Amino acid sequence: MIDQWLQHKWFLRVIALALAILLYFMVAETSSSTNSTNALPIVGQSSMTLDVPVEVFFDEVQYVAYNVPEEMSVELQGPSSSLTMTKLVKDYQVFVDLTNLGTGFHRVPVEARGFGGDVNVELERDTVEIYIDRKQTVEVPVSVNLLNKDQLPEGKVVGDADIEPTTVKVSGGASRIQNVQEITLNVDVANQSQTFTRELTPTILDANGNPLNVTVEPNIISVSVPVYEQSAVFPIEAVTTGDVAEDFRLVDTLLEETEVRVFAPPDVLDAIDTVETEPIDLDGIDKTGKVTATLAVPEGASSLEMKQVEVQLLVRAADESRDDTGELTERVRLTVPVTVRGYDRTNFTLQAPEVIGVTLSGKRSLLESITSNSVSVTLDLTGLPSGLHGVDVDYEVPKGVTVVSPKTIDIELTSVDEQTETSSIQ
Q1: Dihedral angle at the C-alpha atoms of 90, 94, 98, 99, nearest 10 degrees?
Q2: What is the widest separation between alpha-carbon atoms in the chain?
Q3: What is the DSSP track for 336-357?
Q4: pLDDT digits over 147-159, tens only?
Q5: What distance lies between CA 404 and its chain's CA centroid?
Q6: What Å distances lie between residue 90 and 6, 116, 192, 310, CA to CA?
Q7: Which pLDDT tens digit goes with each residue over 389-403?
Q8: CB 215 within 8 A of CB 168
Q9: Residue 65 phi, psi dihedral angles, 5° rounding
Q10: Parallel, antiparallel, or unpaired for β 402-405 and 183-188?
Q11: How far apart are CA 338 and CA 353, in angstroms?
Q12: Does the N-terminal peptide bond of residue 406 adopt cis geometry, omega within 30 degrees of 0?
């Protein structure tokens, strides 16, 4: 109950007034006993200094005020009782009133009230020069700059950061936010061995590196950075065991996916040529059909991007001689050069394969005439930041031919600034 009373301003005022009256009569009694000729008591004078927040009155919906001090030192002189009540009640203000001012620079008076009529108030500054700007809100994208990627544990790499939200609203003076095109968050990945998430508060800096007085909504951005072992993509090989039914023959094994990503230390990746399926049992099979095969994890590898693959077993009667030319069952693998576009060669260096193996599907008659020159492979890197990326491949192939794989290619962009920083550290 007492705690609730202490939270009420009027209760504190009554207590302060009672203390002031009691102090008044104590001083009066002392004065009466020492000098009976005085008709009125002499109340003691005192002084104190307070740091008071500066309030600003203006239309916060349409305008933004700059250069207003957050707080100001105020020196008070007056009766001890009045100062005591001032300090207890805190019913005072230091403020600047901008309600009738337009945009631009203004020198305005600093005002004070609520300190009591018998208290002399001396402000640290009588006036302040402020700048009023029209308020504006813009929506800008958020990006992430991953720092110290060279200090990851051996064999670890980072992928593209997941940002939530990807855009924010920035509000502030129109003249100050007109050059805000993007918010970049710096995330240190040194010594990180697994995927992690950070909750970050964005800070927008001016050209001199000083924080801008703007508001960002939302003001908390979640950044998730995937950290995993190094990886590479390898072709899948279907392995079979046993024999199909008597009087039948296995014509081909057609994989739904022809490649898989393997996560492993660099020395293990160097030793891998293909990823095999667990042996597929052919015993008793007498017709074409699909089976689900489990992929065998290569020795020393930690995991695969997928665990299983669909395999079509193309089975024919042993004496069947019909031509398979009309069926989409034939595949061919070609080595094709890669064309890259859409990145700034003056600010980034690129690590990407110069050629890739492309698996095509189509009629046998079409595939027999296709060469590497018949296929165009392009990677578009437009807008990609520094880091490791899996980029979708753009293909141009002859009509009637389908690209089976690869769908994406791993590339790494490194900014010139990062290379310079790494070189200076070494």
Answers
A1: 30
A2: 141
A3: EEEEEESS-TTTEEEE--SEEE
A4: 888 888 887 888 8
A5: 34
A6: 13, 11, 50, 76
A7: 888 899 999 988 888
A8: no
A9: -110, 130
A10: unpaired
A11: 7
A12: yes
Structural contact between residues 306 and 295, judged by C-beta atoms closer than 8 angstroms:
yes
What the chain holds in terms of domains, given with CATH numbers, is: 2-125 (2.170.120.30), 138-229 (2.170.120.40), 231-322 (2.170.120.40), 324-426 (2.170.120.30)
Query: Residue 134, Cβ neighbours under 10 Å: how many?
Result: 12
How far, in Å, CA of 29 to CA of 43, rounded?
11
Cα 126 from Cα 92, distance rounded (Å): 17
pTM: 0.50
Helices (H), strands (E): how many in the chain? 7, 32
pLDDT tens figures, 172-188:
888 888 778 888 899 99
- Rounded Cα distance, 58 and 100, in Å: 8
User: 192, 196, 198, 197: which is closest to 156 by C-alpha?
Assistant: 192
Nearest to 339 by CA among 357, 354, 329, 317: 354
